[in-house]
Specification:
Blueprint (H helix, E strand, L loop, with lengths): L14 H11 L8 E4 H7 L2 E6 L10 H8 L4 H6 L1 E4 L3 H13 L3 E5 L5 H9 L3 E4 L4 H15 L2 E2 L6 H17 L5 E5 L4 H11 L6 E7 L4 H7 L21 H10 L2 E5 L1 H15 L9 H8 L1 H4 L3 E6 L6 H14 L3 E9 L4 H11 L3 E8 L9 E9 L3 H13 L3 E5 L3
Parallel strand pairs: 2-10, 3-4, 3-6, 4-5, 7-8, 7-10, 8-9
Antiparallel strand pairs: 1-2, 11-13, 11-14, 12-13
Length: 413
Amino acid sequence: MATLATSNESLPVTIDDVRAAHMRIRDSIVRTPTLISRTLSQLTGATVYLKFENLQFTAAYKERGALNTLLQLSDAARARGVIAASAGNHAQGLAYHANRLGVPATIVMPTTTPIVKVTQTQGHGATVVLEGDTFDAAYAHARTLEASEGLTFVHPFDDPRVIAGQGTVALEMLEDAPEIDTFITPIGGGGLISGMATVARAAARPIEVIGVQAELFPSMYNRINGTHMPCAGDTLAEGIAVKEPGSITAGMVKALVDDILLVSERNLEEAVSLLLQIEKTVAEGAGAAGLAALMQHPERFRGKTVGVVLCGGNIDTRLLANVLLRDLARSGRLARLRIRLKDQPGSLYNVARIFDEQRVNIIEVYHQRVFTSLPAKGLIADIECEARDRQHLNRLISALRDGGYEVSQVEAG
């Protein structure tokens, strides 16, 4: 990887393309901050700069490439309109800027797309067409409409204009934090990392470019490394859950990117939670993938000055709540304890007394008499509780066992 056997000049996007894109779009996007995170730096052993692309109007960097493409269309193409297949951030970024520029936009989405995403995209002025159960079906229909209605298809990643627009993220990061020596960048189709790597290779000093994919969707990793790991599963990082990377982007990644790391679902969840707790910012799973790589592979980045792109913040609030609660459970602050009791007066009271003595808060209590393998006079009580930390919880469990109770912890996923 990054052998540079192909010269940078022969690649479809150059540093001049990225600079020109920035001149076009900079007055119509948010100049998001690049800020050092002292707490994350202490946790990881690296100097960590975060680029808050979740603060764009549509909460994702995708606006950049979409706008750069729209601004290069002819007047005739603008009048006819644009079309895209997307159920995510590309749809909203393209719809928003097309509406702002007076360009008709059609977005084809799978019929399974959550209604909130449909409504948000329509709210930006786009016509939404629901077609097929999968993204592939929606994509095929979009290409059919492109041909039949004379529309311009705007690809979410495999287009030099889109890649150049996404690369403006790196230009801004290096302007704000010129000491960055490593980019950690999520990879879905590869548009963002292709643009950022173009900027990195044009710098006057070496800047390492590391890509990140979810373990469940290692599509670019497979393409570059010749592996055949499956791409499937219910990943938190749905924004980078791409089964087939682009052909243009794959060539650029092979030429310009140093390495691709894979991250687990657990680390993705931890990264989303950490960003909310430490930085008070909301990132979707894909947006937190760079931090997840930093947390999962700290030895890889120790001592480096890293730039991490928080590329999007569009996460369902119910999913976010679930991620946060699961993280609290893993840290020992929330727990469900399963306690075997005797079915007689005072049993639950005596257990509650131990909770009180240990100053652990009881949230909910579940009695189970029927659906259990215990004898008829046996009783299971599941008690959800809140402790200060893992050590506090362990002291409670020890006290319960010292009191003669059988206790087990119902583990979070």
